Amino acid sequence: MSGQLKISAVMTAPELRAWARHRGNGRAAARGYAIANALDGLSRAEAAHLAGMERQALRDAVTRYNAEGVAGLFDRPKGRRPEWLTEAEQASLAAVIFTGPKHGLACEKWGMDNTPHAEIFPICSRPRPASIPPTH
Which residue has the higher pLDDT, 68 or 124? Predict the structure, then answer.
């Protein structure tokens, strides 16, 4: 089949299986096993099926493997909302929380009701970004 996507020869099938065996990430390991199966000569559909994925998922994995090597077999980071506090503000808030109560409060009574608000509000009181909708 002339339209078939070629697989990079960066690793042999046994090397790719050994790599997949030692991964803590099951999805990356499955992609590695599927590519190793295809390198051994199985059809793409059968190689994907044995690794528990669809043929199109194997094609996507091969494309990323060819471009990035084994690093391309791991999941991409998922999108998430931007942080509300900067790293410096998060560190300040953590410092206030982890240093514990001040002003003679007992530890079991230290919480949002009893925490000196003057310590926390300067950290968290700036306006909410427009990209984060208010909670109700």
Answer: 68
